[in-house]
Amino acid sequence: MDSLARYTSWFRGSTPYISAHRGKTFVVFLGGEALAHANLVNTVHDLALLNVLGVRVVLVHGGRPQLNEALTTSEFHNGRRITSAAQMRQITSLYGALRADLEALFSTGLPNTPLHNVEINLVSGNFIAAQPIGIVDGVDHQCTGRLRSANTQAIQNLLDTQAIVLQSPIGFSTSGQTFNLAAEELAAELAIALGADKLVMFNDPGELKDAQDRRLSRITPELLNNYCADLEPITAARCRALVKATSNGVERGHLISFAEDGALLQELFTADGIGTQVSIQHEDLIRSARFEDVGDIVEIIRPLEAAGLLVPRSRALLEQEINHFIVAELDGVIVGCCAVYPFADAAELACVAVHEPYRHQHSDLGIGSALLEAAEKTAASEGVNSLFVLTTQTQEWFVKRGFMPTDVESLPSDKQTLYNWQRGSAVLRKTLNP
Tens of pLDDT along 128-179? Predict the structure, then answer.
């Protein structure tokens, strides 16, 4: 495939995400390592592009390596920096410099593009009310604090103006005391308070891997929590933030690389992504189809019908039979479908289809398998004891998932009369668990 064809394919595949992400709220975390990395300029430009595309961005920055360099005598307790009043003044000064650097980068807009004159407004404020950690295990944490509350209404009002809200990991008490906060914790708590749609954590590495050194493109909060004990401390802290956010109402979290150019766009605007996505799955992947899904189902099945893989269905027929359909939905995009038709003591699994950009997902996501699992549950709820499928070219996929070849005479009598002998589909059947 030449470069133009690849670009065309990528752009077509990304357009559903552009629509799905518009108007959504993303809390994005950039740690101190990311702020010091040469790729920061590209990361800022990609965040600016999200803003131009209508994403509501709240950016939380850290500064751990910068603090370590400046505060060489810092003491820690359970991995948390103990902050004295004198150090707090140094920290606010350092964070002010980091914030100014980010403001300067965002002021360039989107250079070398037709949008180079677009103004990206970056706004900061005293949105975070904090409280002291206090004395833990006999250790006074002094000016180290935690979130008490966030002025979410003020943040939402600024997001409504298409500004990017920039938040440093500091907060203030009602008496005017300044507190140093853990940046990763703040990002997670702010995402929860805002009811954000995503929490994006930049890290190095920008992905998790399984025991076979394969990227985990998707993981549940529960499984990620189990991984944390074996991760190095900084990555573990960021993964625990993702666990907390996605376990408390944030729909999705993402761990991605700050060192790889374009990682943010690849993760958010391609089917396969490049990092690790965290969500309470797979139940939220699959749902019953609705009438408004017909157009998306048509887009998925038409190429397969043209290739002879599926029996053609008119839009009118799809509208009539929509109650039989199940769909897979990712980030607001319909990416797969199937239908279940009851026949006495058996049910037919039909129209199994996955949108082309999603057909080569890693096995941990398994859109087709998730659809099949949902179809089996639906069939079982109808009181049938077996599921059958007619297929011309995908027998191996079904056999791997427990279907066994059988003959036309094993079909329910009503289905036998409808069998297309000219098409000559193979018949496979799977006995369902009670």
Answer: 999 999 898 888 889 999 999 999 999 999 999 999 999 999 999 988 899 9
Tell me, what CATH number does 123's domain have?
3.40.1160.10
Work out how many domains the chain is built from and give that number.
2
Per-residue pLDDT averaged across 247-257, rounded?
Answer: 94
Q: Are residues 135 and 11 in the same domain?
A: yes
- pLDDT for position 193: 96
93 and 163 assigned to the same domain = yes
Whether 361 and 405 map to the same domain: the answer is: yes
Q: Per-residue confidence at 357, pLDDT binned at 50, 70, 90?
A: low
Residue 81 has pLDDT above 60, yes or no: yes
Domain that holds residue 292: 286-431
The mean of the pLDDT values for the chain is 89
The percentage of residues in the chain with a pLDDT greater than 90, rounded to a whole number, is 64
Q: What CATH number is attached to the domain comprising 326?
A: 3.40.630.30
Please tell me whether residues 199 and 331 are part of one structural domain: no
Q: One-letter amino acid identity for 193?
A: A
The answer on 315 and 171 residing in a single domain is no
pLDDT 10s digits, 227-238 = 998 999 999 999
Q: Answer whether residue 283 shows pLDDT above 70.
A: no
